[in-house]
Amino acid sequence: MRTLLFVASQVTSIRALSTTRSSWRQSVNFDALNQLAFALRRPQCLIPHLSLGHINEIDFLLLKKSGIQAICFDKDNTLTLPYQFEPAPLVSVAINNAIANFGYENCVILSNSAGSTLDDPYSIDAKRTETAIGLSVVRHKRKKPDCLDELLSSLKLSDPSSICVIGDRLFTDILFAHRHGMFALHINRPLSLHGDNLFSIIIRFFENRIYLPFWRTFIRISPPPHPIFSSLLFAMKNTDKVSDVTS
């Protein structure tokens, strides 16, 4: 009952928050909806390898040493406030750390808003994001989790397992990573609800408060295997940096 009351209160208050033109303009992600049956049959594909509260908690040097070659960032509520273009407060530190360890050419943004031919057909938002953040935004026809080819082409890589996907959504970012054998790093606390898409807010609440705790804590399922997972977990334990790792 408390959960239902909380969701109801969130929906009521968030209607007033989700007023920006961009948040309502974003189209429904049918690619993700088409993958829902797959995800429900294979719940491990929505379990991240690593889950952290904020992007500044990521040790990019450790990812590099473990074998990761490139970083794929989500945009909204990972790098920026929803449907904004400037990096959120403190996020610039993490972006600079990623660039210092991987280089500009190996750090990209893959967003279901900016760079999508459905929601950003003239790349206006993608260009504004690139100017504000300083990283390339991948242009793509299909949304996550179905735009691997565009990501590999942007990074000039052929092996998806060498990429770390960083994002706040299980049904898009984490599913995208697992469907294609990439390392899945989940940011479990949104930067802000203000201006976010109402549908996204409700789904994120379900993902983080219900779905993930149920499967990971009560059922204790593990994410799909990844080549660097064991070595990264070992390194994090030895450096006392384990925060929320699914083992």
Strand order of the largest sheet: 1-6-5-2-3-4
- How much of the polypeptide forms β-strand, as a percent range? 5-15%
Number of strands: 6
Whole-number mean pLDDT: 85
- End-to-end Cα distance, whole Å, is 32 Å
C-alpha Rg, in Å? 17 Å
Q: Shape from CA axes?
A: globular
Put simply, the count of helices is 11
Structural class: alpha/beta
> What is the string of helix and strand elements?
HHHHEHEHEHEHEHEHH
Regions with pLDDT < 50 over 5+ consecutive residues? 2-25
Taking the sheet with the most strands, its summary is: 6 strands, parallel
Helix content: 40-55%
Give an account of the 3D structure:
The protein has 247 residues and is α/β, with parallel strands linked by helices. Helix content is 45%, strand content 9%. Strand 5 (163-167), helix 9 and strand 6 form a beta-alpha-beta unit. Mean pLDDT is 85; it is low at 2-25.
Outline the fold blueprint.
Layout: H1 2-17, H2 21-25, H3 30-34, H4 36-41, E1 50-52, H5 60-66, E2 70-73, H6 91-102, E3 107-109, H7 124-133, E4 136-137, H8 148-155, E5 163-167, H9 170-179, E6 183-187, H10 198-218, H11 229-238
Parallel strand pairs: 1-6, 2-3, 2-5, 3-4, 5-6
Helix pairs in contact: 1-10
Features:
disordered N terminus; alpha/beta; 247 residues
